[in-house]
Amino acid sequence: MNWSSAAATAPLQRAGSRFSDTAALFGNIEWLRFAAATAILLGHMAPHVWVAGGAEGGWLKAVWYLANAGPDVFFVISGTVIWTVTQHESGVRAALRFIARRLARIYIHYWLFLGLAAIQLWVWAPYLLTRKDWLRSIWLWPQDIDTLAIPVTWALTHVLVFYLLIACWVWLRRGGAGIRPLLLAALLVVLGNVYAIAVLDVYAPDKLTSASWWWRLWLSPYQLEFIGGCLLARLLTRHKLPRPGLVMLTGGMLIVLGGWLNAELFDGRLISGYFTPQRVAIYAPGAVLLVAACIGLQQSGRCFMPRLASTLGAATYSLYLLHTIALSSLYWIGFRDAVAGSSGLLPAYLLVAALLVVISVAYARYVEDPLNRRLFGWIDEGIDLTKR
Asked: Which end of the chain has a smaller Cβ tally under 10 Å, C or N?
């Protein structure tokens, strides 16, 4: 199932709490996904504007503080989507098909952008080539962000750990949509973090980079956001969310509060790995409520421009990978210096942001979606679920 496009065409259920097509859950979520990706884009664009002489304040500064919540929203969405599309699958073949599809979708497109990043560095900043761990970057293997070829791909490593957890859950499950393994996993993450924080002090500045990836990745607080998305999907495929508008307002207010805390208490440093537990505690509740509200509105038959939502939502993966490469390229070709200090500085960068969205939409439509369909077809032929 290509759930990004299916969201635009699946029939909405205007009564009751269930859907005849689970893809109908995702229409409004696509808008949320795009909003999170756009916030991340603008958040990473902001320092370029400020260094070029733009005013360090106003709405762009607010977006910069709020953009930290983007990956947290993505993680909750990922848990919701993955639970929904796997809730009726079980057994080793289903698990293999799931992980094969997810790895294909993640890696094939990532490798294309990784090649673009390598060419970019080779042309404009060859001295940086030796500072990157290319072997680990190719496989998204755990590493510190400074050696990542594309820095934002730290989030993909956490996604891959979650996919492995879900694959094990599908493999070991025997029918139904039981949540005990996921609840056990959540409990393990909580207990692991209590030990890591209280006893090992893993997130201390002088210990984090040398701490085991067992604590920083496999038992990362981010896994609670993925699992929270799973539990949310299980609940809302069985029950209708009351007053989704109020839930959305509450979720939005919590995200804004998180941005304020990021500004006032952390001076914008929630983006740092040293504050991962605090970041999850601050942003996860709002992210969960926003995803719940999107589903609740869908349950009530309300989805604004679903086809456009599907189009923009499908482009978020390429936009996420492309934008940092594009912004650094603009610096190296002299774009930032050319518009520095001018009245057109911010409009020029906003135009760039809009262009990146258009490019990402085109890539998703003409490259990503057809390639995914072909890859998924090959995988489904190789892993026939009708066989036992």
From this structure: C
